[in-house]
Predict the 3D structure of the following.
Amino acid sequence: MADSNSSLLFLSEKISHKSYVLRIVDLTILGLLFSLLLYRILHMSQNDNVWLVAFLCESIFSFIWLIITCIKWSPAEDKPYPNRLDERVHDLPSVDMFVPTADPVREPPIIVVNTVLSLLALNYPANKLACYVSDDGCSPHTFFSLREASKFAQIWVPFCKKYNVRVRAPFRYFLNPLVVTDDSVFIKDWEMTKREYEKLCRKIENATEDPHCLDADDDFEAFSNTKPNDHSTIVKVVWENKAGVGDEKEVPHLVYISREKRPNCLHHYKTGAMNFLLRVSGLMTNAPYMLNVDCDMYANEADVVRQAMCVFLQNAKNSNNCAFVQFPQEFYDSYASEFSVLQSYLGRGVGGIQGPIYCGSGCFHIRRVMYGLSTDDLKDNGSLSSLATSEFLAEESLVRKYGTSKELLKSVTDALQRKSNPQSSLTNFIEAAQEVGHCHYEYNTSWGNLGWLYGSVGDDIKTSIEIHMKGWTSSFISPDPPAFLGSTPSVGLETIVQQRRWATGATEVLFSKQSPLIGFRRKIIFRQRLAYFWILMCIRSTPELIYCLLPAYCLLHNSTLFPKGPCLGIIVTLVGMHCLNSLWQFMKLGFSVQSWYVSQSLWRIIATSSWLFSIQDIILKLFGISEVGFVIAKKTMPDSKSVDGSKPSQGEDDGPKSDLGKFEFDSSCHFIPGTFIMLVNLAALAEFLVRLLQSSCSHGGDGSGFVEACGCIVVVMLFFPFLKGLFEHGKYGIPLSTLFKAAFLTLLFVVFSVGN
C-alpha cells in the first residue's frame, strides 16, 4: 500500500526533452523536401518519366519525414526515483516474470540461464517475485539447465545482494578479472562463485553433448518420446521459495512450462506461449504486474522492478491509466547503435504523446489490463464499474472469455478485482496448469482477442495498439545504465531474417482491424496513430530501392535526375542537413563517426532486403499461397570485454562491433537485391567514365553528368559491404551463385536503360 501523505516527494515524474533547435532543424528539412517537390512539379513537362518516378519517391520520403516530425515534436520520458519507494510503499506488489524460449539450438540454454539468473537476483523482495520460463521447444536440455541454474542461484543471488553487484548476469560479470581489493572475504566469495558458475557451464555443455546422461533421471520422464511440435503439457516447479519472508538469501520461484503441441493444431508461435504464461502464472502466483523479456535480454539494472513500480504506483495515485512501462531494447554487440538512436529520439517522441509502443521485451504489464479491461470499465478509484462487473464477472461471461478452468476463472476474478493471491504451494496448481495448456483449451474463448493478440508475427505491435485503443497510456523509461541488454544476430543472413520477421509482422498489422489505414476507434490520440503508422510503414523499402537505382538509370539513359543550376542547392543542403542531423544524434549519445557510417550502411542493406521480402510474404499470405512463419534468430554468447553497459562517453566507439568488412554472406536470395544495386551503380559509373575518356559526356543541358555520378557513388558507399564482398572469400565474400543472379539482373537493367 502506498502512503497517502501528499507532502512526500513523487515516486516518478514526466521529464520533457522538448528542443526548439531540433524542431527548427526538422521543419527546415521538411521545407526543403517540399521545395524539391514543388521544383519537380514546375519542371515536370520538361523532363521524361524518370522525373515523375523521382517525384513519387520523394513524395513518400516527405510524408515519412512529416510523420517523424510530428512524433518527435514533444519528446518526454518518465524518471523514477526508486530510492523513495521504501518510504512511500509499505508492501511492495508482486511481479511475475516471463521468459519465452523456443529452440535450444538457436537459443542456447546457457543464454536462457543467464537471463533467468539476472532476474532472480534483482533488488526486490524474493517473496514478491516469480520467474516463469516457457519452453516452446520442449527441450530436456533447457529444463536440465534451469534445474542446475536454480542450484547455482542459491549462491549467486546472496552474493549479488551482499556485495551489491551491479551486473547480475554471471556471464557478463565474470568477463572482467577480479578488481584488486583488500577485502579477503569478498575475494574468497568471488573465486568460489566463479568456480561454481564454471561448473554450471560445464554441466550444461556436457548435457548438450551427451543427452543420454539425462535419461537416468526421473525428472525427465515427461520428456520421453516428445517432439518439439508433438508433446503434452509439461509444468515443473524448478524451485519454490517456501520461506516467503523476503530475506536477501531467498531465491524467487522458478517454474518451467511447455504447453501442449500437436501437428494439426494452431499454436500462434510466441504469442500463444505468452498467453499460456499468463494463464499459468495466474493460477500459481497471480501477481498484479508482469514483466516479459526475451531469453537473451538479461536484466542489466538491479533496480529495474523498483523503477517500474515507481511509475505504476505514482500513476495509480494520479489516475493516469498507465497500462505498461516500456524500457528500450539495448544491445551490447553488432550494429545496434542505429537501433539505440532510433529509440532515443522516436521512443521519447512517442513517450510524450500517449506513451511508447510495446516492443515485445523489457516491458512491465498490468495483469488485469491484459485480461481485456478498458479505461471505461473502471471507476475513479480504479475498481470495476457496475457495468464492467456484470460484463466481466458473470459466470457465463467468464467461461466465454477465459475458458472452463474453475481455478483460472477464480484467479481472473481476483485479478480483475485487485484481490491479493493467498499464499499456497505452487505444486497444488500443476494439474490445473496442465489443463489450461491443452491445445484445445482456447477454442471458443476470447484468448487471442485478449492477452497477447493473435493474427500476426508482430504480436507486440498489435497488442500495443489494442491497449491504447482502449484508452490506456504507457510510460517510457530510459535509464543509464540500460535496464536490459541483449545480443543481436551476426551481421548477415540472421540479421536480415530477424528484420524480415519484424517487417512482415508490422505489414500484417496494416491489414488487420487494428490497422491505421482503416482508422482507430476512440481513445487514441491522432499523433499516436501517426506513430503506429510510421512503425508499420515497411513498404517504404520499395521507393528506397527504386531511388537507389535512379542515378544509375539516368547515367545509362543520359537523362537528368537532379535539379540544375542554383536549385541544385536544394538537394545538396537537404542531404547535408540530414547527414549532419543524423551524425549529431549519434555523437550526442556517445557513438563515433565510424559507428554512424557503419550503422547507416548496414541499416540500409538490412532494410532493403528484409522489407522487400516482407512484402512478398504478405502478398503470398493474402492470396492464400502460404502462411507467414515465425523464424527464430540465432543467439550467440558475446565476446565483449566490457560489462559496464553504460552509454559510451563522448567520442568512445561503443557502436557496431563488426566493421563493414565483416558482413557475412551466403547463397540466400536475401543478398541478391543489395548485390544488384551495387552492380548497377558500378556499371553506370563505369559507363560514365568511358564517356569522359572519350570526351563525349555532356556537362549541363539535358544530359546526365557529375551530379548523377555523385549519386551513384553515394549509393555504392551505402552498399560498401557488397563492394568488399566482391573481393573477399568464404563467409565474407559474395557467393558466385548470388553474384551471377545479380549480374544477370544488372545486364537486363543496363539493356533496358540504354535502349529505352
In short: Residues 688 and 694 are 10 Å apart (CA to CA). Residues 640-658 have pLDDT under 50 and may be disordered. The first strand starts at residue 12 and ends at 16.
